[in-house]
Design a protein that fits this description.
Blueprint (H helix, E strand, L loop, with lengths): L1 E9 L5 H10 L12 E9 L5 E9 L7 H7 L4 E7 L4 H16 L5 E6 L11 H9 L4 E3 L8 H11 L3
Parallel strand pairs: 1-3, 1-4, 4-5, 5-6
Antiparallel strand pairs: 2-3
The protein binds guanosine-3'-monophosphate-5'-diphosphate and magnesium ion.
Magnesium ion binds next to helix 1.
Length: 165
């Protein structure tokens, strides 16, 4: 079976592990322990032509600096999800730094930007006009919630549709 590796990148506590759990296991738990190292979840999906595809979703803890570990983590990825926490504007800046690190060190990789925690409606610090500006630049950014599941399947589908290789 064909396999595609995808990575999930973003600052600490933006909800990376929660998003993967929602997508792969359809659950949200308040009791995730901070993942140590790298965790790989797999999910088999059906392509539009009916053939199966195995997704290997790499979730890393502590992508602090684009170190050698960071590059090793990304090697072989067909694309990535870039996650910010909508309630903390600084996590968007961090996500954009991570993207620059990816783009300066590796070949251009498709990504989909996610603004997570959309369920916390009254607490959003990343505003619609900011997201609209990034979309106008040709990027895909989606508001999602690992807690409610809002737009999570769609986010992975949109990434899959843009994968290379
Ligand atoms: P990380 O893997 O990016 O470090 P986690 O992030 O998935 O561990 O999530 C960090 C915290 O954010 C967790 O809370 C988790 O429950 C919460 N969280 C993740 N996604 C959402 C979401 O969509 N909505 C809300 N409201 N919270 C979310 P704790 O309290 O365990 O630190
Ligand atoms: Mg995590």
């Amino acid at each position: 079976m064909d396999t595609r590796k995808i990575c999930i990148l973003g600052d600490f506590a933006v909800g990376k592990t929660s998003l993967v759990a929602r997508y792969v296991h359809n659950e949200f738990s308040e009791r995730y322990y901070t993942s140590i190292g790298v965790r790989v979840d797999t999910k088999i999906i059906g392509l539009p032509d009916g053939s199966p595809l195995k997704l290997a979703i790499w979730d890393i803890a502590g992508t602090d600096t684009p170190t050698e570990l960071f590059l090793r983590y990304l090697r072989g990825a067909a694309g990535y999800l870039l996650v910010a926490d909508g309630t903390r504007a600084e996590t968007l800046a961090r996500a954009l730094q991570l993207r620059e690190a990816v783009e300066s060190q590796l070949a251009l990789l498709p990504f989909v930007g996610l603004v997570n925690k959309a369920d916390l409606r009254g607490e959003q610090e990343i505003h619609q006009d900011r997201i609209a500006t990034m979309r106008e630049a040709g990027e895909i950014w989606l508001a999602v919630s690992a807690r409610t599941g809002e737009n999570v399947d769609n986010a992975f589908s949109v990434l899959l549709a843009s994968l290379s290789g």
